[in-house]
Specification:
Blueprint (H helix, E strand, L loop, with lengths): L4 E2 L3 E2 L9 E6 L10 E5 L11 E4 L11 E3 L12 E5 L4 E6 L7 E3 L22 H9 L9 E5 L8 H13 L4 E5 L7 H8 L6 E6 L5 H8 L4 H14 L3 E7 L8 H11 L5 E5 L6 H4 L1 H4 L7 H13 L4 E4 L23 E2 L16 E2 L14
Parallel strand pairs: 3-4, 4-5, 5-6, 9-10, 10-11, 11-12, 12-13, 13-14, 14-15
Antiparallel strand pairs: 1-8, 2-6, 3-7, 7-8, 16-17
Helix pairs in contact: 6-9
Length: 379
């Protein structure tokens, strides 16, 4: 697991800017071409001049330039082209973007109008509007070769017009990158859905969860009265204006039995959606609190999962299985398996060491150490 947040950034120079800032990292061989660039001293050698600031992993023998900071060894993965947010007053540094990673996600807000039983990012009712400003600074600093970017929350639609502004910035600066937004779908009334579509992003998809074909059960899972109806209406509004939609289903003890019924509901009512992801549980956030009512060994719902996949695929829908271990899936499900867990929190258990198919397997969230299947068996 990579450490994306550090509170051990030590100023090395008496003179440094104390305000939080977003900076791109530049290695020794790159020229200074932006006032946003910090030099990353990850090799021995002379310290070049002209940079806005400097990061070191070892204290330099010569007098460090202004705005110099010492980084802890756990951040040694940082490389040329990465983007970070530095907060000198709190000795803090957060990695926002990694150029070499295929898994770049941005948290847009911690606010949410759902309170899901298995929420991995428990909502906070706070003013975090500074995040939008940070992201709008990050986007122009990202590599144009970035394949895909994810936006998540909290609930991104709560940003209103600011979300549209972010989407437009991605279109203007990273038009070749696909953009995926995770949302509960409740905020996409006709006007907002139309505004999203009018941004004309060339490759935008919004992932929206549906947890049951029964409104009351979906509402219970998300802890929101009327959430099911608002979510379905939001999906319809987005598709009306041509926005791609992915349906996301997190499988747990409260939802697995009706998984085939949900697949039939989607087949009857939502075949115009672009993708369906059937997802394993991440044991973090509220899931840890509600673990006993949510946890079920994936082996126990293989029949329901196989039936749901068959229903969806026979209806012509694109369907994938996320966050599952290959050795637990029925053979018929393996072609649908996707390695979906972000690289910075993807791990394997001791039982996996001898497995010959680890490169194909989805692996585990690092939080799965709390509880995982007793049926893990290497190929």
């Amino acid at each position: 697991m990579l450490k994306l947040l550090s509170n051990a950034v030590i100023p090395l120079s008496e003179s440094f800017d104390s305000q939080p800032c977003v900076r791109r990292l530049v290695s020794r061989d790159a020229p200074v071409d932006s006032i946003f660039d910090f030099f990353l001293a990850n090799k021995e050698g002379p310290i070049p001049s002209g940079f806005r600031g400097y990061f070191f992993f070892k204290k330099p023998t010569q007098t460090p330039p202004p705005n110099s900071f010492l980084l802890e060894p756990e951040l040694s993965y940082l490389a040329d082209g990465d983007v970070v947010r530095l907060n000198p007053k709190r000795n803090g540094l957060r990695t926002l973007y990694r150029k070499r990673s295929p898994h770049n996600f941005f948290l847009l807000t911690e606010r949410c109008n759902n309170y899901c039983l298995m929420c991995s990012q428990p909502p906070k009712e706070i003013d975090d509007s500074y995040i939008v400003d940070d992201i709008l600074q990050v986007i122009p600093l990202m590599s144009p070769d970035t394949v895909s970017v994810g936006l998540t929350g909290g609930e991104p639609s709560l940003l209103g017009p600011a979300l549209i502004k972010i989407i437009e910035s991605f279109k203007n600066h990273l038009s070749a990158s696909s953009l995926h937004i995770l949302s509960n779908g409740r905020g996409f009334d006709t006007a907002f859905a139309k505004g999203i579509a009018e941004g004309h992003h060339p490759d935008l998809m919004i992932g929206i969860p549906i947890y049951s074909d029964i409104a009351a059960l979906h509402n219970h899972v998300v802890q929101g009265d009327g959430a099911f109806d608002e979510t379905i209406r939001g999906i319809i509004n987005l598709k009306r204006f041509g926005v791609k939609v992915e349906i996301r289903v997190v499988i747990h003890k409260l939802t697995y039995e009706r998984l085939p019924d949900l697949a039939r509901f989607i087949r009857r009512n939502l075949t115009f959606c672009d993708h369906v992801a059937l997802m394993g549980l991440e044991i973090t956030g509220f899931t840890k609190i509600n673990l006993e009512q949510l946890w079920i060994d994936p082996v126990e719902y293989q029949d329901q999962l196989a039936e749901a996949v068959e229903i969806l695929s026979q209806a012509g829908l694109s369907v994938s299985i996320y966050n599952h271990q290959l050795c637990l899936l029925k053979p018929s499900l393996i072609p649908f398996n996707v390695k979906s867990i972000s690289d910075w929190k993807n791990e394997f258990m001791p039982e996996c060491k001898a497995c010959k198919r680890m490169n194909e397997c989805g692996g585990f969230f690092n939080s799965a150490k709390i509880r995982y299947s007793s049926h893990i068996k290497p190929f």
